[in-house]
Write a structure and sequence with these properties.
By secondary structure, this protein is of the alpha+beta class. The protein contains 10 helices and 16 strands.
């Protein structure tokens, strides 16, 4: 039988090594990433061991509400992280242990954010079957726009024209380490459009980029030394994900964002399996931002679902 154990600090090495070898692990699940905002998200992560005391699965989790156990609230997704030995029957045992632990700890609800298939090194949807078997309810579905780099669709005419205009006006693209300037642009854009702030401050993003320099990268478009636009990429084994995209007014007029994305898709990340633009849905997935998704689809992005499930305990 599988048993669930609450994660403790002394298990950091075992946790991180398991994430590195997992068939659906990404750097977001490493403890150094999860814990950078531990003050905001009370950790309730679990480790699962079989009868031979072998670690077979992890669940990055939080308990922001006293009666709710949730896939980590500080992450966009994060279901059960599993290795190559995970099979459907074993996953059912993992869920038995998970639900027993949750009930024993006094939780009355489980919120589960499945890991999208594009992040799976090999098929890893045993958890979706286990969710079904345990009466889970799909209560939210966000839509991301993703490019399969082996089956790329052509850019729209508008995107191609914008890229040509940017080149003609002398805009250049290169990797940058000036996260402070970029995040100032991002803050102005989000504040003006939506009245909100980015999830990360400039200091937090700098801190994370210093810890994960191979996974968190900024690419900027500049002209005569002025940053016009940028894209922050979260890079995993199979996916290059655009975490932040922003441009100044001058950058928008110059087509600077389109030039950066063209560079990422057709040059820098041409060897990746997927390029993911992130979600274009609002209000828990029930509202599609038509303008935003159309822009991403103009680069050839097509829909990948980010699913949220709920189990009443």
């Amino acid at each position: 039988m599988v048993r669930a154990v609450q994660y403790e600090v002394g298990q950091k090495r075992a946790w991180d090594e398991f994430v590195d070898a997992a068939k659906n692990g990404v750097f977001l699940f490493k403890r150094d990433y999860i814990e950078y905002h531990a003050d905001r998200f009370p950790d309730a992560s679990l480790m699962f061991f079989d009868e031979d005391e072998r670690l077979v699965a992890l669940l990055p989790a939080t308990s922001n509400e006293p009666d709710v156990l949730s896939s980590h609230a500080g992450l966009t997704f994060g279901g059960v992280v599993s290795g190559d030995s995970m099979k459907a029957g074993l996953m059912l045992e993992v869920f038995d242990a998970l639900l027993a632990h949750a009930r024993g700890a006094g939780f009355t609800r489980l919120i589960y954010k499945a890991i999208p298939h594009i992040y799976h090194r090999v098929p890893a949807e045993e958890d979706l079957y286990a969710l079904f078997r345990n009466g889970a309810h799909l209560f939210r579905r966000d839509v991301s726009s993703t490019i399969d780099m082996n089956e790329r669709l052509p850019f729209s005419k508008g995107r191609k024209w914008s890229i040509k205009q940017a080149l003609k006006s002398g805009v250049e693209v290169a990797q940058s380490f000036d996260f402070e300037t970029f995040m100032a642009i991002e803050e102005r854009v989000l504040g003006a459009r939506h009245g909100i702030r980015p999830v990360h401050t400039a200091a937090e993003l700098r801190f994370l980029a210093d810890r994960f320099p191979d996974q968190i990268k900024l690419f900027a478009a500049s002209r005569t030394g002025e940053m016009l636009a940028g894209v922050v990429i979260y890079e995993s084994q199979r996916v290059a994900h655009a975490q932040y995209i922003a441009a100044t007014d001058a950058g928008k007029a110059a087509g600077a964002v389109d030039l950066v994305i063209n560079h990422l898709i057709n040059d820098y990340y041409v060897g990746k399996k997927f390029f993911d633009f992130g979600i274009s849905t609002e209000e828990g997935g029930r509202q599609l931002n038509a303008g935003l998704v159309e822009n991403k689809q103009g680069f050839g992005g097509r829909a990948v679902a980010y699913d949220f499930y709920e189990i009443e305990l």
